[in-house]
Each structure stands twice: as C-alpha cells, then as structure tokens.
Fold this sequence. Notes:
The protein is built from 12 helices and 21 strands. The chain has helices at 8-19, 31-36, 43-51, 64-67, 137-144, 148-156, 162-176, 191-199, 248-255, 307-317, 352-358, 390-393, and strands spanning 24-27, 39-40, 69-76, 81-89, 102-105, 118-123, 126-131, 180-181, 216-221, 230-235, 257-259, 262-269, 279-284, 289-294, 301-306, 320-331, 334-346, 362-370, 376-378, 382-386, 398-401. The radius of gyration is 23 Å and the shape is globular.
Amino acid sequence: MPLRPLTDIERDRIKKLTAESVDLTLIQPTRTGLEKGIMDATAPVRNYLREKGVHDFDLQGRGGREHGVKLGARVLDGGSSTSTTVSLYKPSAKPTREGDPRIWFYGLPWHAGPDDMLAVIVHDGEIFALNITRVDVAHVLDTQRSGPLWDLLQSIGSKATAVAGELLGELRDIARRGLVPSVMNTRADTAVGRTLETELGIAINSAKEPDYRGIELKSYRRRQGARENRKTLFAQVPDWSISKFKSSRQILEAFGYERGPDFKLYCTVSARGANSQGLSFDLDGTAGLLNEVSDRRDIGAFASWSLRDLRETLARKHNETFWVSADVENIGGLDHFRFRDVIHTRQPIASQFDILVEQGEITMDHLVKRNAKGRVSEKGPLFKINGSSLDLLFPPSKTYALA
C-alpha cells in the first residue's frame, strides 16, 4: 500500500533528521496491522535493510516459523529508548499468490497509532524505530539536547571537506566580478550551468561523473516571488531491455504533439496523478521497478527503470553537490548572470528516493522532439526534485552567500 502524504509537521521532522545526516526509510502501520502484529515490508524498506547490511528478504525462505529472523531493535521516544525485537519474515505462499514480506516491532502499539509515520533507522548495525508523527525532533535537537535520540543523532553527524572550501572560494571570486555574460547566444536552461563551468575552467562534456574534484555542480536561475524551482538530479533513460517501448522515438510517436516546426513531448511525469498526456509513474515494489504508465488501455506500462539503478545514479552523481543560484539580467539581447548563493549538500539519503517519488516530490521531465528533418533528440529524461524538498533527500544542507 502506498504511503499517505506526509503532513507539514512530519516533513519538517524528516528535514531535521536529514540535516543531521540521518539515513532512514518509512513505514505506515495500519489499524489492522497494529491489531494483528504485522506490517508490510515495502520495497523501500526491503531495499534499505539490504543496503544497510542487516537483512536481505531476497535470500530468505518462506514461512515465519522455519525461516523467520528476529533481531534486536530499539524504539525511540523524545527522551527514552525501549529495547524490543523486530521480526522479519516472508509468509508461506498461498494457492493464488505469494504473501508480501512482513516486518514487526514487538510492543509497537504502545508507541504508535494507526497511520502514524515511523522512521526506521539503521546505524552501526542496530535498528531503531522513531514515530515522527508524535516525537518532536526539533525539541530534542534545539532544547532538550540529551537522551538516546540526541545521542544517536550526534553519532550520525558528518563534517565538511577541504575541497568544498576551495570550490566555494573560487565561486566567490567569480561572484565578485559581477555580471557574467552567457556563453550561449540563446536563452537555454543549460546556459547558466555552462557559463559557470566555463568560468571555472571545466570542459563541457556529458560525463556521468561529478564536475569539480568529486563535487557535482548544479546551477539554476532564481525566480523572485515564485515557488522555488525544481532542481535537476540527473538524466537517465529507461532500461529498454525491460521496457515495452524500446526507444525515446517510440515514446514520442505515441504521446507527442505538434509545436511549430517540431513534433515534441515536453511534459512532467509524477506518481501523484496523470498529466495532460495521460502519463504517470507507478512504483512496483515487488519487482523493484519504477514504471511509466499511460492511461490508454492498449499501452499501459511502457517504460521502466530499476529503482536500484536510479538510487545508484543518485548516490554516484550527488555524493557532494553545490547548487548555485544566479540572478539573470538581459543586456543587449544576451543573458548575463550574477551568481548569488550556494546550497551545499552531501551524501544523499538514497533510501529516500523511492519515498519522494511516491510522494510526488521527485518527478521526471520528458524533453524529446523530432525536427522537420526527422531527427529525434532527447535532452532527458530528467529526474527533478521540488526545491522545497531538497533537504528531505540530502544531509546536511548549508547555504553560503557568494557576495
């Protein structure tokens, strides 16, 4: 069952945890689950436990008695910690289908109500559960500053790197020079990034590795008085070997539209609902896939990505990232950029990727078109995150003024 949307309070609490470099996944216990003592171990939970090295459901046999695993765990409240046991098992197969993997924290009804949101955290091989619906994380961090949760968060914290300080110095030198003319004659979305990389002496290329000695550079135009821009995480085409459609051209032919001399498909795809082309995301937790789906019955799911591949791309691309903002001024028909500030993020919480896609905070843009000569070009698909959700994915987020 998909997670319900997070409340504003829960979002703020996850942001607080993420700012402390906490890597977590989420579970939503239902009323029935609390009564029966079972919860579904969803795909994000299974991936998280496997990647943390504490349990791999794929290697586990079916049957709770024969193959069930029990591990020590702790349930954290604001000022206390309760030792408990977490049960991990795959129920015996039924005649019609295989049962979903299960997880259960003994004594959980004492700490959670129906549809509360639980953060599951693994640190140094130990499993923790924290009810973010009930526990005031900000109070623990800013006022209480003691107790088991405080101790855990302090243990997880991380430090900045020397390379980041060097890059920050170079960016401040560029900002002090004022307006920088664009290296592109047209007003393209990529102009600000290419201009900044040119100023830093970075060759323009399509390499998948980070730009500056292990640090990824992402630049964007600031919008005054508007909702904060979505920010590009990475570009990644579907895995054509497992997809119904086998190319971007096929996607374009099925869902594109005429715009001037071009035939194009420029649209945003989200898990929260279909767009005007009838396209949406569907997470297949059992198969570990992110599927793009059409509302046309004759097409259905037509493009697929491995969630593991997407998380690995995120981790590789954004181990450390500078998100550089710029004001734009047009002078004589040419854009000029004034670089203003940097959001510095490190080591994305890869387990959050699936959750944020499911919540509609991470979306994907198609940018594919066919020109009058029949040539098809694809600038994406671009996976993007809402600017206001950046600190749900990256810890810690720090902002530096450049001038």
